[in-house]
Amino acid sequence: xxxxxxxxxxxxxxxxxxxxxxxxxxxxxxxxxxxxxxxxxxxxxxxxxxxxxxxxxxxxxxxxxxxxxxxxxxxxxxxxxxxxxxxxxxxxxxxxxxxxxxxxxxxxxxxxxxxxxxxxxxxxxxxxxxxxxxxxxxxxxxxxxxxxxxxxxxxxxxxxxxxxxxxxxxxxxxxxxxxxxxxxxxxxxxxxxxxxxxxxxxxxxxxxxxxxxxxxxxxxxxxxxxxxxxxxxxxxxxxxxxxxxxxxxxxxxxxxxxxxxxxxxxxxxxxxxxxxxxxxxxxxxxxxxxxxxxxxxxxxxxxxxxxxxxxxxxxxxxxxxxxxxxxxxxxxxxxxxxxxxxxxxxxxxxxxxxxxxxxxxxxxxxxxxxxxxxxxxxxxxxxxxxxxxxxxxxxxxxxxxxxxxxxxxxxxxxxxxxxxxxxxxxxxxxxxxxxxxxxxxxxxxxxxxxxxxxxxxxxxxxxxxxxxxxxxxxxxxxxxxxxxxxxxxxxxxxx
Length: 495
Hints:
By secondary structure, the chain is of the alpha+beta class.
């Protein structure tokens, strides 16, 4: 045990020596900062909070102003610039430490070159502001954060208790009515003691729909927590979502598809204009849809479903117990040894190895269209035969892939610029049971994202239920608290 700590102390001493050497080199090599540049940097740091960042992470701006000109001030200013600039350009938090499946591309900026340009022009503040995401949604979230920081009005909280619905009355119903009025979901509240009526139910359903909650018009625990999300919680939520924007590449693609998992929403964009919006279903909690970006290279019309291991195992059992039903649903049994379809009535269940596929048809789990952007998660966008579920506000119903409403319309948007295709030809292919793979001459970027605060086309911000519970980890990391990595757990166990 003592040897372990001796090694740790030796490593810490070596790290200290390296840091001191690095600082000495920085003193010698840091570019010159004149008074105007330092003042511009100090002003930029004073506005770090408007980006959801903590100014204390960048030292004392006043102390920097008081530092006399010279190598020390140059080194301090350069270090602060580089740290703050990297946080604006890439994010304060490393998303891979929060989610091992996170594979979206990061923004690319040369911070040293950016600093050199800032000092040459003298506009340090403007250079730093330009490093932050320039997307209108980021600007809307930032404006909302400034507004929320200024709001100090008291908020009504609803106490924990049983689910409330029509006919209930009492202090919790009174608090619910007052809270909905504060959130502009209800006009002047009724007198205390008024029962839970249809007017209150309608207002609650509007609130639930706006936040992507199950719109049953009853106040259960999930709805109560969302109603009780006050100023501090919304500020933290805005900080988390500003950070998520900083994780993204600046160029999403001239023609791209953007999916917000938390909002159950798919958007098709062309040259900065949103051309289509589709509702989607996402993975359930046990099979959460990951965050990533990939390129759509082809689509499949009337796709065959190659069932994955877990889901396929259930249908293999069905072929053994009720092969007629499995066949009636379009499923086929395929030998893993030969790749050929096998008659389930004569299958060798003792020695054979099988998987299940599903032929195109009205019951096919992929529906009529599958949008393919090969990725390591094996997650795609596709149609579904269970289209009635799109009527639900909360749609975490899939096994990980994204099911899209009106997939044929989206397929036509994808194929619209492809030579040799017309809407009539697309409909004719879909009318058959023949599988057709269409490779795209112009691939389309696909971004699977997770935002719990979003801006509409008027710049108004809407807060969304955090269906996967991902906000808290981002907020904690912004405050300097990361989840422990496996090697950190191992060191803690030694202590």
